[in-house]
Amino acid sequence: MFADRATIIIRSGKGGDGHVSFRREKYVPDGGPDGGDGGNGGDVIFEIDEGQNTLGDYRHKRKYKAGDGEEGGKKRCHGSNGNDVVLKVPEGTVIMDAQSGKVIADMSGENRRQVVLKGGHGGKGNQHYATPTMQVPKYAQPGQPAQELEVLLELKVIADVGLVGFPNVGKSTFLSRVTNARPKIANYHFTTLSPNLGVVDTENGGFIIADIPGLIEGASEGVGLGHEFLRHIERTRVIIHIVDAASTEGRDPVEDIYKINKELEAYNQEIASRPQVIAANKIDCIYNNEEEDPIQRLKQEFEPKGIKVYPISAVTGQGVRELLFHVKELLDACPRKSIVFEQEFFPEDALVAENLPFTVEADPEDSSVFIVEGPRIEKMLGYTNLDSEKGFAFFQKFLKEGGILEELEKAGIQDGDTVRMYGFEFDYYK
């Protein structure tokens, strides 16, 4: 079975604890602290693999864990970092928080590799805590804890053009004629279960086309495999709507188009408004003695609405070339900007919500310096890369939403004063 969804649990590595030890040598009986720092925990990284086209690898294994950092050692030895875990996914995979459904990462376009869960920082050894008044510190910083998250992986096929239509209208036959794809073709009354991708080459250029599995009424409400099918059309720029113009199974092609468009509209209004062209298929089965010309009826109904109708036969190839030329013209008129789902969920946000304590105090030796400490601050700094734009933006949000800025203002901080947090220093400006 084609696997386009999977729910897995990912866990970053815990930071190694800092070490408590003291220098002990033959002629240095009372040496100072020399406990080393713990290693950083491994990250959980997602990476695009060009050779994959399904999420099948994630249907049988649910838990993925990065390595923990090693504890620091004596003689200032630094613990080794935990191994990262790299999860390979096909291009077009969207990673979402399983609980809220919000997007964490969209693995498409230029985003080929992304750290989704950061490993905890290693704790500092007791060598860092020696002061003139505390020369024998028996305390080392513990490593930052691991982060764990249940995520939903969802593959949204990347194609320029999507084929839609009821089952058995000839989409697979059409795709096999115009591309190098080789879908299974038979007179099925049930639908294809997986999207088939193919490349179309025409004299005026090429494009990628996907056979979106057949829809049924109620698909937008999840009837049948509705949502599983509809998600694949979200990235397409042009829609080819294939209908059985000959009504070989007694269906009304005009009604079919309205029904499918209604499902698209109910699922996503923006998708329904994208350029569309109607491929009136099976014209080789239309007989001249019919009372009403079905092609003319389709043209009269939809061409005044700006939707062109092309009579074709996917079996014989009649009319297909003209249709593909028109589709390429529609694509050329559409913006080439790829559809990328923006990040909505930041795993670090959970730190803001945690009710861990912190303290804000003015430095007794310098009234323009304010020291912010506590487990909440340690934890936040352990997961945040302040050198990156996103990391620093999160840090600013953390200070505001965590009530830290408010406490600094209560303590009397002024513009230009310094904020000190476990080795980091920042100038304060309101």
TrEMBL record:
Descriptive protein name: GTPase Obg
Presence of keyword Cytoplasm: yes
Subunit architecture: Monomer.
PANTHER family assigned to the protein according to its UniProt record, in alphabetical order: DEVELOPMENTALLY REGULATED GTP-BINDING PROTEIN-RELATED (PTHR11702), MITOCHONDRIAL RIBOSOME-ASSOCIATED GTPASE 2 (PTHR11702:SF31)
Cofactor or coenzyme needed: Mg(2+)
Intracellular or extracellular location(s): Cytoplasm
Annotated family: Belongs to the TRAFAC class OBG-HflX-like GTPase superfamily. OBG GTPase family.
Pfam entry (one): GTP1_OBG
Main location: cytoplasm
Keyword Metal-binding: yes
CDD domains: Obg
Domain OBG-type G positions: 159-332
Role played: An essential GTPase which binds GTP, GDP and possibly (p)ppGpp with moderate affinity, with high nucleotide exchange rates and a fairly low GTP hydrolysis rate. Plays a role in control of the cell cycle, stress response, ribosome biogenesis and in those bacteria that undergo differentiation, in morphogenesis control.
Keywords carried by this UniProt record: Cytoplasm, GTP-binding, Hydrolase, Magnesium, Metal-binding, Nucleotide-binding
Region (Disordered): 14-44, 64-83
Organism for this UniProt entry: Blautia ammoniilytica
Gly residues bias: start-end ranges: 32-42
Organismal lineage: Bacteria, Bacillati, Bacillota, Clostridia, Lachnospirales
Residues where GTP binds: 165-172, 190-194, 211-214, 281-284, 313-315
